[in-house]
Design goal:
130 residues, mainly beta, 7-stranded mixed sheet, 4-stranded antiparallel sheet, 11 strands, 0% helix, globular
Length: 130
Amino acid sequence: QVQMVESGGGSVQSGGSLRLSCSASGYRYTYSSYCMGWFRQAPGKEREWVATIDSIGRTGYADSVQGRFTISQDNAKRTLYLQMNSLKPEDTALYSCAANWWYGGIRTFCGSDRSRYNYWGQGTQVTVSS
């Protein structure tokens, strides 16, 4: 059973930084391709895509976080990260990691397409005060 567990959320003042982690377990480590991403959902709003990294090293970011957030991973630790700098009150949301693994190659970038992600974590809350 695949499990995705986020950590690292918290409360921070505007301009501050946080580093989110997502530990993944239970998937077949022999899979050759994957995409892993972060999404967020603020109260009363739709879930929105934040960033993605895939198995051929491509990364992508939502315009709202470009230049401030960095997605990375440690394959040995099977952990996905999201470094968030210059945080703004509008970044306040529940942040969830998502992933999918499969055999075979990868062509199109998963990006914001939620249907490309089969596994989701429960989320970690990030609150940014002004």
